[in-house]
Amino acid sequence: AQKVTQAQTEISVVEKEDVTLDCVYETRDTTYYLFWYKQPPSGELVFLIRRNSFDEQNEISGRYSWNFQKSTSSFNFTITASQVVDSAVYFCALSEAGGYSTLTFGKGTMLLVSP
Amino acid sequence: NAGVTQTPKFRILKIGQSMTLQCTQDMNHNYMYWYRQDPGMGLKLIYYSVGAGITDKGEVPNGYNVSRSTTEDFPLRLELAAPSQTSVYFCASSWTGNEKLFFGSGTQLSVL
């Protein structure tokens, strides 16, 4: 069975600090997909990234970067120079490739960025 | 395109009442889902559908029912509301189970 663990329940930083959100996953499949979603205080769920298990290259998008390491089953998310608008709950999720796969979400990490 | 539309946005039910949460998508997606979100617990899958006429249980299906008569619509039915069903409900859709999900705006349901 697939599982996603986000051990950090809540993180508080001051604006302009860098922050890393951890995500550890478990799966028996060799082919799988990892996701990050953002849920700002308004409540909607915003897709950030999707990565397949064969692509271990790190990804950078503006102030966001993702570090995928199969050896440690981790898919960590770093925000550089955090801003107040980054305050949100961030969810990591996993889907396996076989059959009728569905997304399994972690419990989320609440990030509070103060001015 | 409207994307995924959920109604209502808010609802208060009394214990034992029933209701249907509506969900429709206009992207011709095969997959549709219902998740519930409880504080600090992430999103848990209630039911999902891989196409019209095909539905299956997720992690927390008890107390709910679904149907998928068309590609566009995926309503969620609560038959006998219980306080444990107080939650925020999200409908979502995607092309396949491995693609990104498009979410509706959510329904905040309170059962008192």
Summarize the structure.
With 115 residues, chain A is mainly beta.
Describe the protein in words.
The complex is a heterodimer of chains A (115) and B (112). Chain A is globular, with a radius of gyration of 14 Å. The mean pLDDT of chain A is 94. Helix content of chain A is 0%, strand content 53%. Chain A is an all-beta fold and 115 residues long. Chain B is globular. Chain B has 112 residues and is an all-beta fold. In chain B, the strands form two sheets. In chain B, strands 2, 4, 5, 6, 9, 10 and 11 form a seven-stranded mixed beta sheet that branches. Chain B has a four-stranded antiparallel beta sheet with strand order 1-3-8-7, with no helix packed on it. The interface between A and B is medium-sized, with 21 and 25 residues.
Extract low-pLDDT stretches of chain B: none
Seen as an oligomer or otherwise, the chain set is heterodimer
Radius of gyration of chain B: 13 Å
Low-confidence stretches of chain A: none
Helicity range of chain B: under 10%
The first-to-last residue Cα distance of chain A is: 41 Å
